[in-house]
Each structure stands twice: as C-alpha cells, then as structure tokens.
Amino acid sequence: MKSPIPDYLHVVLENARPIEDGKPASYIDTLARADTSRLAVALATVDGKLYSAGDDQVEFSIQSISKAFVYAIAIEDAGLEKVLEKIGVEPSGDAFNQLSLERGTHRPMNPMINAGAITAHSLVISPTATAEERTDRILKIFSRLAGRQLHVDEEVYEAELKDADRNMGIGYMLKAAGILTCDPREAVKGYIRQCSINVNVRDLAMMAATLSNAGVHPITGESIIPQWSVRQVLSVMTTCGMYDAAGDWVSNIGIPAKSGVAGGIIGALPGQVGIAAFSPRLDDRGNSVRAVAMCQQLSRDMGLHMM
Ligand code: DON
C-alpha cells in the first residue's frame, strides 16, 4: 500500500511557504547570501522509513544541531561524570553566544550554548587531541548517523574562523575558569569545524531518528550511541535545545529538539520518529521561522507532543 506520508509532507511544506518573517543569519557572508526560498522537511520512523519533501537534497551547515551529537560523543569519550563536572544541564535563558557560566562551579550552564559546546568538543577523544583529530572522529560518527559520508563546508569554516573573536573570547574565558584544559584556540577551531559539516534534511531526520531509537540506527541497525547517553542528550535538548525559546517550544511542540543558525531544526520523539525541517530565515532567537512552523504542524497533526 502506498504511504500517504509523502503527500502529507507536501501539505506541511506548502503551509509554511507563504511565511516571510525573519532574516537569514548575517554574521558571515555565506549564510547571509543563503537562498531564502529554500524549504524542506523530512521524517524518519524508528522502523527505518524515511520520507521527505521540498529541497530535501539541498545541503546547509549543521551549525548548533551538532552540539547535541557532540555532547553524546563527549559522554562516550570522557564519561558522564567528567562531562557533568565541566558542563551543567540547566537552561541559561540567555542567547546561545553568551558566556553563561554557573555561579560557584564556573561550569557553562549547558552543552547547547556555545560555552558548553566548546567544552564538550574539548572532551572528544582527550584534552590533548588536535582540532583535526576531534573533527575527524565527529565527522565519522555524524556520517554513520546520517547513513552517508558527510563533509565539512570549507567556505563556511574559513568564514566562521575569520569571524571567531567572540567564540575565541569564550574559549579563553573557559580556560581562565579552569574548565578548558587544552589550548582554547584548538577547541574553538574544532567546534567551528563541527558546526561547518554540511547536511540535508534527510541526513538530519536519520540522525534524529537514531536518537529516537535509543541510539540504534533505524536502517543500518548499528548501535551508535549508548541508550543511557541518549537519555542524557534528549533531556538536555528538551530543556535547552531551543535556547531562550525552549519554554515556548516545549509547551507548543513538545519534542526534544535542536536548532542551527543555518536554518535547520531536528526533533526526536523517543520510540517514534525523528523529524527535520529547514529554511534559512531566523527569528530573533536564532530559530528558523518556517522550520518551527513545520515542526509545529507535524506535532499537532501527528500527536507528537510528549504530554
Ligand atoms: O557558534 C556559532 O556562532 C555558530 N557557528 C553556531 C551557532 C548556532 O548555530 C546557533 N544556533 N542557532
């Protein structure tokens, strides 16, 4: 029997198309020049079916969506105890690029803000690893999660690196606070490289569905992230994945999620589906306006809200 899901995804897409609010990220030229008409949505089920509509082959940089998966890798490489010693799990309520260190412990508030993500990156492999070694490992795991070989967008990487004063500043503050023990430049360079990995919505839906499927890839059957680590990642995505819009998102859409500044959003509902949406124009909290609208419709129509 033909599945009605592809037709349904076209409806979701066309409902979001007229929305013209927001602006693409402007801090680097490559993102500012993005084609704002781009629009795509994908859905992957835990039993291995993948559906998509719109510009589903168009690649964009994963950006902050990488933070959720690198947090999982840091947990695997350094152990949860060490990770919790260095990075908190509380929503900061601040923008993603605020330093937001916890009073007393000086830990970044959570792994989804830049300070926490740079720290998580530094815990991949070991504090003495180079940015290249860490990003190689990250790229390999992201490729297994997506189910195809992914690549770094070198143009995005170079542009972000040229404009990295704020992230470098965060790196040096983390070093001064005793949170980073490696060279802060290496950690920030690696963090920027992980953000510059290109994906399309189908890749992201598969990556999200692997989280939904307790770390086991729904198509290849490979166990990529341990189940207990997935629990930690999804918890932090629920409370901190959408930055200062996390409360709105959880009450409206109710799916553990993560957004990126290139316009991508993933949502992972345990035991059910991974969803991904993309369109470049962002709201003032840095989340794609049309992608939020598409996720909201999917959540309402398919009853994906956790509660
Ligand atoms: O750290 C940065 O500035 C970017 N490379 C990634 C930030 C990002 O995606 C924020 N999300 N909405």
Mean pLDDT across every amino acid position: 96
Please give the CATH architecture of the largest domain.
Answer: 3-Layer(aba) Sandwich
> How many helical elements?
13
Low-confidence stretches: none
Please give the radius of gyration in angstroms: 18 Å
Number of strands: 7
Largest sheet composition: 5 strands, antiparallel
Structural summary, described in words:
The protein is an alpha+beta fold and 307 residues long. The chain has 2 domains: 5-61 and 198-302, 3-Layer(aba) Sandwich (Beta-lactamase); 65-195, Beta-lactamase (3-Layer(aba) Sandwich), CATH 3.40.710. The protein has helices spanning 5-16, 29-32, 65-78, 80-86, 114-122, 131-146, 154-162, 165-176, 184-195, 201-212, 227-240, 246-252, 289-302; strands spanning 40-45, 50-54, 60-61, 198-199, 257-259, 264-269, 273-278. It has a 5-stranded antiparallel beta sheet with strand order 2-1-7-6-5, sandwiched between helices. It has a two-stranded antiparallel sheet with strand order 3-4. Helix 3 crosses helix 4 (80-86) and helix 5 packs across helix 8. The model has no long low-confidence stretch (mean pLDDT 96). The structure holds 6-diazenyl-5-OXO-L-norleucine. Residues 63-64, 96-97, 114, 160, 167, 192, 195, 259-261, 286 line the site of 6-diazenyl-5-OXO-L-norleucine.
